[in-house]
Design brief:
alpha+beta; FAD binding; Butyryl-CoA Dehydrogenase, subunit A, domain 3; binds ligand LEDWP2DD; binds flavin-adenine dinucleotide; Butyryl-CoA Dehydrogenase, subunit A, domain 2; lipid metabolism; 2 domains; 3-stranded antiparallel sheet
């Protein structure tokens, strides 16, 4: 009989805040909560979206299952007449990586961002109805980070009014695009534009790669899958692909011509739109990845927190009602709390900074429509930096969550190994995290150098305008409670960031060759960029707290999480804070004292804080993290579902076990 007891009910009864209000804060609005909740339940109750154990499927079966699910998603969206908002929630809760992620996430945005209105009118209706399936073919075997180094060529032929797309070398083979290997019919291909014998840099071209009748590659095209990837399940349901062109011809009007164009005569014409707009799809996706990071981390933390409240190890001074000794819940170990609660706080911090980044991006798009490009450099720096910061922290946090679950965390049924394997490439795709931080530091060095000419930094760099104050100021914390002051915390972060930045700027002047200086100092520049990004996350968390927050105890709990997020970072990056004299060793030790009190405040609320994510058991996909905390029967049941347990005596016994045993028998007789 199924156990219907809520093993975490006692934990839930201890919460000191209104969980329903916290759910609204996490979702972003009451409306978002209602829509997401309805769609989550719809997905969880539909057997078509059932989550079989992906880890035990062969690559082919995994891929086939992902294809089936993607087709079913599309069918249900159309049958139910879902809105755009509902559709994105549906894809989110189905939680299976397939070609449609790149189609909707990159192919369509690339057309929207880089095609002319006329081109959009032609291609978007086809893409929006999935009459064509697209991929984003930028990276090559030889070059990923260095986009300017791409080798694929697009040479204009004025005789036929066509571009000839060609892969001149092995290293020019497109390599990695998702959905390319076996599914995509079209691709936005990034290639070096050549016309009239001159090269004009990388541009996007819309190229059909497979027949819409029989799915065979078109003449001149070689295409396939690049092979198994890290982990079981995870990205292996996606057909990341390889693509080569042997002088494939496409009409001239399939060059994406919003930023620059080639005329019928073969003349290259630039518009007044910055060339970087060609990279617009990457800016868009980096912004969405920050939201992915908070989701992935919160999933892991939800699993680890619920399991930590259920799991007991070693004795306890307390006795139960019958006078029997009961063991300690592992969540009560201070070490467990000091590892888990900062991750919980980070999930909330990333959620809020992701929300703000979405606003910043939407604002950019509105400005671009009015030909205002002024915020593009800042948006590029924020999306690049925050993508880097949050994905690195979330990937590390998922792995830490696995360890927080002890041995059972290593089981596939915990959901954590696949979550990690699925999420960790986010540190690489859409820009390697170190390469992106170098972009941020380049932007910051420019901001600092412009101070001398009187240019006032704005937005996320506004604090750099207060350089004199921040270089001189001292932190006033004298006792542990003094750290419970958001202005004090923010100033400590700003002081540390600006001091690192100014040190880099000063050191750069010691090099005659700026490029060489930048290269020599790149580790320091990366560190300074991280410090700057942390200022953004902390300040956006603080801004969130200044909004009208409803519900008993909600604001207090969020404040506690904000302090934990910040003080834990101080603890982690103590070297920076001390070497820049942003705080003293005594203040560092007071921060650690304060952290202990903050963990004690979170403890009774921990389960309710992860309940506020409102994740269904279907979405979590973890026997350790289920809502009712009924961990052991679920673990036991799940083990028996493994294909190895289908037979009592394993396949191969007669060939490979019995002879060994017999051999031992013979040896023993001798
Ligand atoms: C379980 C939960 C998990 C959920 C998981 C969900 C999964 C979802 C599926 C995910 C599918 C993944 C899909 C992945 C797709 C990809 O990876 S696509 C390929 C992405 N590739 C990259 O990101 C490449 C990174 N490299 C670059 O971006 C650039 O080449 C570079 C690093 C920026 C360097 O280029 P370069 O031309 O050398 O530039 P610079 O000289 O440094 O800069 C020139 C100026 O341009 C500015 N700039 C650069 N980029 C941008 C931009 N994107 N937008 C705006 N401006 C930009 C730069 O700052 C310079 O400005 P100035 O200093 O003013 O000159
Ligand atoms: C799962 C997955 C899905 C992907 N999907 C797509 C897709 O749909 N479409 C697509 O086009 N691409 C896709 N990619 C490719 C991805 O965008 C690239 O792998 C990524 O941009 C990193 O580039 P790279 O592989 O060339 O790394 P490299 O640049 O070769 O990085 C190797 C190492 O060199 C370092 N490095 C490189 N340049 C510098 C520098 N200037 N300074 C200091 N250090 C440096 C990096 O930090 C890294 O440690 C995908 C990749 C993955 C893993």
């Amino acid at each position: 009989m199924e156990d219907t007891v809520d093993h975490l009910a006692h934990e839930r009864s201890k919460a000191q805040f209104n969980v329903e209000e916290m759910k609204i804060i996490w979702a972003g609005s009451l409306h978002a909560l209602q829509v997401s909740d309805r769609i989550a339940k719809l997905v969880a109750s539909d057997p078509g979206f059932g989550k079989e154990n992906r880890a035990v499927l062969s690559r082919k079966d995994l891929f086939k299952s992902a294809l089936k699910k993607a087709a079913y998603v599309w069918k249900r969206i159309n049958e139910l007449g879902l809105s755009e908002e509902e559709t994105s929630w549906l894809r989110f809760y189905v939680d299976e990586l397939a070609y449609d992620y790149v189609h909707w996430g990159m192919f369509v945005p690339a057309i929207k961002g880089s095609a002319t209105e006329e081109q959009q009118n032609k291609w978007l209706p086809l893409a929006n109805t999935m009459q064509i399936i697209g991929t984003y073919a930028q990276t090559e075997l030889g070059h990923g980070s260095n986009v300017r180094g791409l080798e694929t060529t697009a040479t204009f032929d004025p005789v036929t009014d066509e571009f000839i797309i060609h892969s001149p070398t092995l290293t020019s083979s497109k390599w990695w695009p998702g959905g390319l290997g076996k599914v995509a019919t079209h691709a936005v291909v990034y290639a070096q534009l050549i016309t009239d014998g001159k090269e004009y840099g990388v541009n996007g071209f819309l190229v059909q790669i497979r027949s819409l009748d029989d799915h065979f590659p078109l003449p001149g095209i070689t295409v396939g899958d690049i092979g198994m990837k890290f982990g079981s399940g995870a990205f292996n349901s996606m057909d990341n692909g390889v693509l080569r062109f042997d002088r494939v011809r496409i009409p001239r009007n399939q060059m994406l011509m919003r930023v620059s164009k080639v005329t019928r005569e073969g003349k290259y014409v630039e518009s007044n739109i910055p060339k970087q707009i060609i990279y617009g799809a990457m800016v868009y996706v980096r912004q969405t990845i920050v939201a992915d990071a908070s989701i992935a981390l919160s999933r892991a933390v939800c699993i680890a927190t619920r399991y930590s409240a259920v799991r007991r190890q070693f004795g306890s001074p307390q006795n139960d009602q019958n006078g029997n000794g009961i063991e300690t819940q592992v969540i009560d170990y201070k070490t467990q709390q000091s590892r888990l609660f900062p991750l919980l706080a980070s999930a909330y911090a990333f959620r809020f900074v992701g929300e703000w980044l979405k606003w910043l991006y939407t604002d950019l798009i509105q400005k671009l429509e009015g030909n205002d490009f002024s915020t593009l450099p800042e948006v590029h720096a924020c999306t690049a930096g925050l993508k880097s910061l949050t994905t690195s922290a979330a990937a590390d946090g998922i792995e830490e969550s696995r360890k927080l679950c002890g041995g059972h965390g290593y089981l596939s049924s915990s959901g954590l190994p696949e979550l990690y394997a699925t999420f960790v490439p986010a540190c690489t795709y859409e820009g390697d995290n170190v390469v992106l931080l170098l972009q941020v530091s380049r932007f910051l060095m420019k901001t600092i150098s412009q101070l001398q000419s009187g240019k006032k930094p704005t937005g996320t760099t506004a604090y750099i305008g207060h350089v004199e104050h921040l270089i001189q100021c001292g932190c006033n914390v004298k006792k542990a409670e003094d750290w419970l002051n958001l202005c004090v915390i923010l100033e400590a972060f700003e002081a540390r960031a600006i001091r690192l930045l100014v040190a880099c700027a000063e050191n750069l002047t010691k090099f005659a060759n700026p490029l060489q200086g930048f290269s020599e100092l790149s580790p320091d520049l990366v560190e300074a960029a991280v410090a700057h990004c942390q200022v953004i996350v902390v300040s956006k968390f603080i801004e969130k707290l200044q909004q009208n927050i409803q519900g008993i105890g909600v604001k207090q709990l969020l404040e506690t999480l904000c302090y934990i997020y910040s003080l834990n970072l101080i603890h982690k990056h103590l070297g920076d804070f001390l070497s820049t004299r942003s705080i003293t060793p005594k203040q560092a030790s007071l921060a650690s004292d304060q952290l202990r009190s903050l963990y004690a405040k979170v403890r009774p609320n921990a389960i309710a804080l992860v309940d506020a994510f409102n994740y269904t058991d279907h979405f979590l996909g973890s026997v350790l993290g289920s809502y009712d905390g009924n961990v052991y029967p679920k673990l036991y049941e799940e083990a028996w579902k493994d294909p190895l347990n289908e037979s009592v005596v394993p396949d191969g016994y007669h060939e490979n076990i019995r002879p060994v045993l017999k051999q031992q028998l013979q040896n023993a007789r001798l």
